[in-house]
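Pipeline run #58 for the internal structure catalog. This entry was flagged by the ingest filter as a single-chain record with no existing model, so it goes straight to prediction. Upstream metadata was stripped on purpose; only the residue string is passed forward. Reviewer on rotation: M.T. Logging verbosity set to normal.
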Amino acid sequence: MAEQATSTERRRDEAPVPEYGAYYYGHDCGVPYERNEHWLRFFGEVADGIVRDFHPTSVLDAGCAMGFLVEALRKRGVDAWGVDVSEFAISQAHESVREHCSVASLAEPLSRRYDLIVCIEVLEHIPPSETDRTIANLCAATDRLLLSTTPDDYSEATHLNVQPPEAWSAALAREGFLRDVDRDASYITPWAALYTRGEEPLPEIVRRYDRAWWRLRREVSEVRGSLLQAQERLAEIEESRGEERPGQLAELDRLREEVLRLRDHLVGKDAELGAAKGRVAELEDQTRRFTGAAQKLQSRIPGAARAAAMLRRFRARG
């Protein structure tokens, strides 16, 4: 799942870099990261979503750890492969997929292209000095990248490179990849997103991002309203001392669960909203700069302004 661990080795010119051994997987992932019901169910659901939404012919799980997603995808008929920097993790892959999982660093070029590359909670473990190279390698090997990387978990010792979503979007845009704002990958994490290589005209990109930004803004507002209503109802129940106390306690438990769910949902949507807003601003700035450059160019060419006006009138008549 990620290139991660707890013990470290020190490079001559950098801060300590995590190794990728047994201790991390046994102790630092919340639920022990091993072949158990929790992780097999999670990656089974992720594989279901990938097959349902993207219909890939070949998939690379970049940072595959023990190969659970590779295993789940191959069971569903997908030509799936995995790479991870951890020799320990790869050694734990199930025998059915061991030949499809290999030790490799994402800072090195990938050996082939894939219809889809999946990268789940990996990039935050990549040293900053290797970020641009890693992004370039992933983008060179596919036209579709399904990415999930935490935007705010700074407490994990192996998280060397936690960034907000817009930072990753900008890095991927430099490689010609844009977020597909019409795809929902929240069954992985609230911040998961699909990025695709595209050559859309700039006005259409701005239109698409702006539409998504407004939709997300409305949704965030609605979720926040629902959260506030649930909290108000919780306060009423906690203050109540009536005869219906047992029933109220049951409702209290339900509302507490609802508040937690809404808070998680709100965090994810706020992250999406920030990323979309930042990208819209970036694209609109590009549009202004391109328009300004075009106007300057026209002013330097004799008769260009008059020709442009004639062309606009011709198109209007058409």
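catalog note: The chain has two domains: 8-199, 204-301.
catalog note: The longest strand covers residues 79-84.
status: ready for reviewer M.T.
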